[in-house]
Design a protein that fits this description.
It is an enzyme of class 5 (isomerase). Its EC number is 5.2.1.8. PPIases accelerate the folding of proteins. It catalyzes the cis-trans isomerization of proline imidic peptide bonds in oligopeptides. Helix content is 12%, strand content 27%. The protein has 171 residues and is of the alpha+beta class. The chain has one domain: Cyclophilin (Beta Barrel), CATH 2.40.100. Strand 1 and strand 2 form a beta hairpin.
Length: 171
């Protein structure tokens, strides 16, 4: 599990003329996503930075709600951890439908860090209140397996799924 902490959000290093995809290898299988830097440039930059740093390796999906979403990206696995900095919200027109990647946050709009969620249902009530930044292109069966796993208190999976690696590709 990553224990890395940073003093500030990463410098902007992605190329807005390129397309970014992530291959997320988990203990339940592999998912692939495409990202949308044209609608959430800082958010995509942040996710790409953390993935390339290995921040997500060994991190679990700590919150799972069938029909709603699966949430991961907290290095402590408690739902309270992050990278040591926050990123500004980039609310946009991407509808929160099944497979959409979005940033988790507290009640403050500009409080996202490393935690993200993948929609299992169509929680459209989150539209323009959370920063959507990508969508699943492969691995819906893995999303389904994680989202329908048995959970205990605070929607925590009984047998949490671990992120092994996230590989970023740019084209």
């Amino acid at each position: 599990m990553s224990a890395k902490q940073y003093d500030a959000a990463p410098a902007f290093t992605i190329d807005l003329s390129k397309k970014y995809t992530a291959t997320i290898e988990t203990s339940a299988g592999t998912m692939t996503a495409e990202f949308y830097p044209e609608i959430a440039p800082q958010t995509v930059n942040n996710f790409v930075f953390l993935a390339r740093e290995g921040f997500y390796e060994g991190v679990i999906f700590h919150r799972v709600i069938k029909g709603f979403m699966i949430q991961g990206g907290d290095p402590t696995g408690t739902g309270m951890g992050g990278p040591g900095y926050k990123v500004r919200a980039e609310f946009n027109d991407l509808p929160h439908t099944r497979g959409v990647f979005s940033m988790a946050r507290s009640q403050h709009p500009d409080s996202a860090g490393s935690q993200f969620f993948i929609c299992h249902g169509d929680p459209r009530f989150l539209d323009k209140q959370y920063t959507g930044f990508g969508k699943l292109t492969a691995g819906d069966d893995v999303l389904e397996a994680i989202a329908t796993a048995a959970t205990g208190q605070q929607d925590r999976p009984i047998a949490p799924v671990t992120i092994r690696t996230i590989t970023i590709t740019e084209a």
